[in-house]
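Notebook, bench 3.
Goal today: get a predicted structure for V(D)J recombination-activating protein 1 from Dendrocopos major so we can plan the truncation constructs. The sequence was checked against the plasmid map this morning, with no discrepancies at the termini. Length recorded as 310 residues. Pasting the sequence as submitted so the record is complete.
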Amino acid sequence: IRCPVKECDEEILHGKYGQHISSHKEMKDRELYSHINKGGRPRQHLLSLTRRAQKHRLRELKRQVKAFAEKEEGGDIKAVCMTLFLLALRAKNEHRQADELEAIMQGRGSGLHPAVCLAIRVNTFLSCSQYHKMYRTVKAVSGRQIFQPLHALRAAEKALLPGYHPFEWKPPLKNVSTNIEVGIIDGLSGLPISIDDYPVDTIAKRFRYDAALVCALKDMEEEILEGMKAKNLDDYLNGPFTVVIKESCDGMGDVSEKHGSGPAVPEKAVRFSFTVMNIAIAHGNESKRIFEEVKPNSELCCKPLCLMLA
């Protein structure tokens, strides 16, 4: 209830109104405004009631909200109530709670996005079990699921693998398989035998080149659009785009030192990869460069084509 006294205008909880009004000594006829209890139990605060009593108390309001929702919001009572709650929180400067509620309303949840959690796990060098331990601890201590569970991270990881994004080449490429499944294969299959005929067995995880390239470009979508905006090419999406790629092959040292537990293995690991060096777009008679890799030798921009144990 808003206090009727001039220059006070304070909002007081229903139960504390009488007590507040009696503090205005200067006010005559204050009995006019004080709450009259007509006997029986005093009204309890809405939030302390049982769910049934809350329903009973709010029946009339609920009917009005329902009528409003049907008239204005296509019958979405939940949206009306959530928005009312949001406005009430903002009016009281409860912005943290309001932000959390807004996130839930937009389906984001108040936690971090799985892709963000994946980035945190990779950049802090946490193994799956270490990450899971942190996830459980944070959930138990804070009572909120801020980090996402491992299965959500795995789903986010799939979107980063070659073959995830549908695409077609125009004109179609010749002699390229349409199968984009990632397979475990003999990594040297298709290569002519080396000069010294060293008998080496390999096992490799190999991605199809064009599928890996599409995945890399899809991953860079934001940078490409930013670059186009910088060159005032916002609406120009027809291409053709020229993509310059550097291919590389890198030995990854002795794996036995890296995989921790288990038996020592004599293998060497090799990675065939490529880096997108720059992207240009033909515009009129000139070619405008819309992306350039600043650190072309960094492993962060290195996209794998084939990971092989030899």
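Residues 161-309 form one domain. DSSP finds ten helices and six strands in the chain.
Flagging this for group meeting.
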